[in-house]
Amino acid sequence: MTTTRFAPSPTGYIHVGNLRTALMNYLIARKSGGTFILRIDDTDPERSKEEYVDAIKQDLEWLGLQWDRVERQSERLDRYHAAADELRQNGRFYEAFETPTELDLKRKKQLNMGKPPVYDRAALALSDDEKAKLRAERGDGVWRFKLDHERIEWTDGILGNISIDAASVSDPVLIRGDGQFLYTLASVVDDTEMGVTHVVRGSDHVTNTATQIQIIKALGGTPPEFAHHSLLTGPQGEALSKRLGTLALRDLRENGVQPFALLSLMARLGSSQPVELRTEMAELIEGFEVSQFGTAPTKFDVEDLYPLTARYLHDQPLEAVRPHIDALGVPADKAQAFWDMARENITTLADLETWWTLCRDGADPLIADEDADFIAQAMTLLPEGPFDGETWGTWTKAVKDATGRKGKGLFMPLRKAVTGMERGPDMSALLALMQTVRARG
What we know:
Elements: E1 3-6, H1 16-31, E2 35-40, H2 50-63, E3 69-72, H3 77-89, E4 93-96, H4 100-112, H5 128-138, E5 142-145, E6 151-156, E7 160-165, E8 173-175, H6 183-193, E9 198-202, H7 206-218, E10 225-229, E11 232-233, H8 249-254, H9 259-266, H10 281-286, E12 298-299, H11 305-314, H12 318-328, H13 335-342, H14 352-361, H15 372-381, H16 391-403, H17 408-419, H18 427-433
Parallel strand pairs: 1-2, 2-3, 9-10, 11-12
Antiparallel strand pairs: 4-5, 5-8, 6-7
Helix pairs in contact: 6-7, 9-11, 12-13, 15-16
């Protein structure tokens, strides 16, 4: 049974980078008929906020990424204590007391000597008396996992064969001086005890994965299958991290992006498959293969979401958008006609307001000087309302017969005079919905 998880920290809102990880893990679980766990990494009581827990759930529900169960790491502290005790008993856990300044000096000396800047394990040489003295002076130390200095190897689902020399990595800190369990220990314990079989996450976790494999084995567990996807960049290859504040899912939602536009893009972006709009989760699940994703940084442009959103909306029936149309005040008997007219001329649902305002209030006419006399004459031929689907054809024929104009020279000035725009919906459908035409005076 395949089991995956998404483990966000409730210290902020989910952004597109988080979504990539969540979606890949979700699709793997659903494709195999397995389990998808939402695991809230709330071991930091100061930074974790319940409002962000709620927001994470709201964002996932908006996208249709339904979890099978929720786990809270703050409710599993006893399991982390037990794991820490086991590591101590096995000689794989030791307390260290260096200050950040002392560690920084050590790193600089190592770099100056041409050595890798890894922790020198000085704490292992401390006697019990020396530890007691340091503890009295500085408080409790941090707890580090003692790595076996050997090569750590695994076959990554995206990166292929990985081999990391553990001697080139510092013994990771798993418990802070204030007693807080850090992500690495909590994640290892949870993945092992929850039976997680596949972990997909960003390539910035590769070194972290190497240390986690050793910790899992030290606790008697079996490492899951790992896959590390490329990191997102901006459209020009720039670091995306500086822009993530504007790429929160809730912001995209408020800006009108439709869920399947976002899912369709993120489920294929960076893979060998083309990005195509999908409107059913089953289509995304069926075609998903993590092995088809590349290793190069993946460019993400938020503007790519809007053509997909527009295409999604164009195919939606009235029932799917009825609440938005009703909220504008469109009469019930005109709702279908309004949607049919507007649907192919919007990018987001917010654009509907522009078209209803035009229908209800008319528009400031756009009339070129050379067309002024022509429009004045044409407006005298415009039938009295209410207009219907035949009005545009009847009117333009009358204007053509009276003025001799035809083609673009006939239709474009009339469109601009009636709508104040050079392009837009079919004029027969639009004029039938208009309650007033300002150009007629």
